[in-house]
Amino acid sequence: YYREGPAVNEEYPYYVFTGVREDPFFQTGQRQVKVLRDRCPTPHLFMHPKDAADQCIEDGDWAKLETPTGEVVAKVSVQESMKEKHVRVPHGWWYPEMRGKAQLAGSFISSDAVLCSDDPEMLDHEQGIPHFKGFPGRVTRLSEAPTGFSEQVLNG
């Protein structure tokens, strides 16, 4: 079974790839473990240098990645190894320091899951799995860090 992913376009010019795993963590866990969080305090959005320059984004800037389904914020990591017009985001970010039901531990701020469409047309017909790779998105530089983050997150 094969299905084409949604095409990039003028409004959403980048191919988004989700699911980058980060060494200190296993899946979505251990974000609350200080020694691990110190090694990786913020999620990173990986971009090619040309794409970053085209968006006036520098390494370490905060940016918003939007898809037709949702948006996340992350710090940009400019990487020569990235293919042009492709961006990657890590899997399962949440912020245990953002406690309470209203914020759900920041689970909708940087989690790759909010980027993927659950429209039935975009789900695998056999298992109901959405496209995790190669769907359209756009990246916008943020002029400042997102509000509500702890000092550890903001300075990470």
Descriptive key words:
globular, six-stranded mixed β-sheet, 10% helix, 156 residues, alpha/beta, Barwin-like endoglucanases
What does this structure look like?
The protein has one domain (14-142): Barwin-like endoglucanases. It has helices spanning 34-39, 49-54, 151-154, and strands at 14-20, 44-47, 62-66, 71-78, 86-90, 133-141. The chain has three helices and six strands. The longest helix has 6 residues, at 34-39. The radius of gyration is 16 Å and the shape is globular. The chain has 156 residues and is α/β, with parallel strands linked by helices. The protein has a six-stranded mixed sheet with strand order 2-4-3-6-1-5. The N and C termini lie far apart (42 Å). 10% of the residues lie in helices and 24% in strands. The mean pLDDT is 80.
Helix content: 10-25%
Total number of distinct structural domains: 1
Report the major sheet. Answer: 6 strands, mixed
Secondary-structure class: alpha/beta
Second-tier CATH architecture: Beta Barrel
CATH level-3 fold name: Barwin-like endoglucanases
Q: Tally the beta strands.
A: 6
Instruction: Please compute the radius of gyration using only Cα atoms.
Output: 16 Å
Q: Shape, please?
A: globular
Distance between the termini: 42 Å
Write the H/E string, N to C: EHEHEEEEH
Strand line-up of the largest beta sheet: 2-4-3-6-1-5
Low-confidence stretches: none
Mean pLDDT over the residues: 80
Q: Total number of helical segments?
A: 3
CATH C-level: Mainly Beta
SS strand fraction: 15-25%
